[in-house]
Amino acid sequence: MTEPYYRKINYYETDQMGIVHHSNYPRILEECRLDYMEKIGFPYKKMEEMGIIIPVLEIHCYYRQSIKYDDEVYVYPKITKLTPVRFEMEYKMYDKSKEKLLHTAVTAHCFVDSEFRPMNLKRRFPEVYEMFRENIKTD
Amino acid sequence: MTEPYYRKINYYETDQMGIVHHSNYPRILEECRLDYMEKIGFPYKKMEEMGIIIPVLEIHCYYRQSIKYDDEVYVYPKITKLTPVRFEMEYKMYDKSKEKLLHTAVTAHCFVDSEFRPMNLKRRFPEVYEMFRENIKTD
Amino acid sequence: MTEPYYRKINYYETDQMGIVHHSNYPRILEECRLDYMEKIGFPYKKMEEMGIIIPVLEIHCYYRQSIKYDDEVYVYPKITKLTPVRFEMEYKMYDKSKEKLLHTAVTAHCFVDSEFRPMNLKRRFPEVYEMFRENIKTD
Amino acid sequence: MTEPYYRKINYYETDQMGIVHHSNYPRILEECRLDYMEKIGFPYKKMEEMGIIIPVLEIHCYYRQSIKYDDEVYVYPKITKLTPVRFEMEYKMYDKSKEKLLHTAVTAHCFVDSEFRPMNLKRRFPEVYEMFRENIKTD
Question: Is D114 within 8 Å of D91 (Cβ atoms)?
């Protein structure tokens, strides 16, 4: 199993409810996603340099337990779906003990070139497509 | 039909793709939601003072067209579901012409008190519940 | 005197102190600055298209009174210094009554081209330089 | 010398100039400041629980070199001034090599209680005041 992404919650991420504002979760998920891509050998910075942009098509967030300033969380990402033009990832966020589930999410992405034209990744960059394919987790 | 929420896109909401970062949409939706609650006669500030907190349980965003700095958008909100402990809202974001659909979203919320304990709104604040109920749009 | 920039405070701009987080002021100042440039006839979007980028060199913020969710503020900007390569702006933020001073700030900027090379605005775009010069307020 | 605060730049911190938006620096400084307080034995979370709030009075940022997505930076904080009611900190941000200076900043803070009333820290919490005093760096 992939190592989780570790994150400590910042003060400026809280709102006047005293908990992390819900709009900050997509940011933590992005950090986790880009960290994951680096771990599997394909840093996003390199992909952008190659002309592969991966915008977000959909995001689905399920807030189960609130999190607070100074909390430490672990996020487990996995690629769950892949086609030549699109992929999906799932995320599970746990507390410090790694036992209490705090948040789950799904993000869907497409592949576009630097002009934002849809790209068939399998055709244009088969080796990058293969890298994604090898990391699909369906369990 | 409710008047839409008007919003101009800020420079700091863009990212290095040159478009609005996806994490800013939940913020625009929140602006729209709170604006809507004010329009239907129940400003959220007043609700928090009464001890009604409305955290986000779920958020579902569908990014159809990217938006850019200085763009003007109109967001149409509506309450689509309501139970004594929970409600859902839907949002449609259009461009300046109000004809091109840019983004759709759904948010789900529960009612809690100032200690974050679940609250039966219908029982505790029937007049607030009624205000929500009157504004349900099922079309 | 220039018309002020009006702004209502958003919920997501608060932190767990219950007030607007200090990092959001530079964002409100930026909104005000870009609004001002549009008002004096030179929208920043047009400037970027011409290849004039205006990064921030310095920012100085003085937090006098805290502001809260749903507060309405007015920000008065003015250009106070200008050289062919640099300019400064000052800002005064007032409350809804326009009588209580909440915040003051200064930002310093340089002119660069789209490759981030320093630009002599007076030489390259004398008409834009002139527009800035005409709007200097030294009082 | 205190160990610096290490930070990797996130994608969502960039703007359409392709660099980190200037409003994110105060956030990185805050992370650094709170990390520093923890390192010297007084986590801010504990201080808030004791009823010591430390709002920002002033912030002064000098942007020397832009930073980009995926950059790694080191921030060196130090307490430079202290009175019973107020203190100041200075920050120097370096690049990955710790040799290239990217940014410098100063923040000023006061001590208030949980009702935002000014507090004489030396009188109310002499041991916390002492902790600050021991860490002043005037070089």
Answer: no
pLDDT of residue A2: 73
* pTM tops 0.90: yes
Q: What count of other Cβ atoms lies within 10 Å of the Cβ of residue A68?
A: 14
What is the band of C120 on the pLDDT scale with cuts at 50, 70, 90?
A: very high
Q: What is the dihedral of CA B44, B50, B52, B54, to 10 degrees?
A: 20
Give me the CATH code for the B5-134 domain, please. Answer: 3.10.129.10
Beta strands in C1-139 (DSSP E): 5-8, 56-63, 72-83, 86-94, 101-110
Give CA–CA dist D136/D96, Å, rounded.
26
Instruction: Answer whether C74's CB lies under 8 Å from C4's CB.
Output: yes
Name the strands in the sheet holding D86-94, side by side, starting at the edge strand that comes first in the sequence: C5-8, C72-83, C86-94, C101-110, C56-63, D56-63, D101-110, D86-94, D72-83, D5-8
Q: How far is C12 from chain B (nearest CA, A)?
A: 7
Distance from C-alpha of D54 to C-alpha of B78, rounded to nearest angstrom = 40
Check: complex ipTM more than 0.85: yes
Task: Give C107's contacts in chain B (Cβ within 8 Å).
Answer: none
Q: CB–CB of A31 and D43 under 8 A?
A: no
The domain locations on chain B are 5-134
**DSSP per-residue string spanning A111-139:** -B-TT--B--HHHH-HHHHHHHHHTB---
With 70 as the cut, is the pLDDT of residue C87 above it?
yes
Which residue type occupies C99? E
DSSP label of A21:
-
The arithmetic mean of pLDDT across residues B6-24, rounded, is 97
> How many angstroms separate the CA atoms of B85 and B97, rounded?
37
pLDDT over threshold 80, residue A53? yes
pLDDT tens digits along D72-87: 999 999 999 999 999 9
Backbone angles phi, psi at B78, to 5 degrees: -155, 150
Q: How far apart are CA C105 and CA D58, in angstroms?
A: 9
Spatial contact of A55 and B21, defined as CB atoms under 8 Å apart: no
For residue D103, the cross-strand partners are D63, D93
Q: What is the pLDDT of residue A138?
A: 80
Strand, helix or coil at A99? coil
Q: To probe the interface with C, which of D12, D16, D19, D22 has the most C CB atoms within 10 Å?
A: D22
Q: Is the pLDDT of residue A1 over 80?
A: no
Contacts B24 to A, Cβ<8 Å: 23
Distance CA D35, CA D5 (A): 7
Instruction: List helix spans (H) across A55-124.
Output: 121-124
Cα C6 from Cα C85, distance rounded (Å): 30
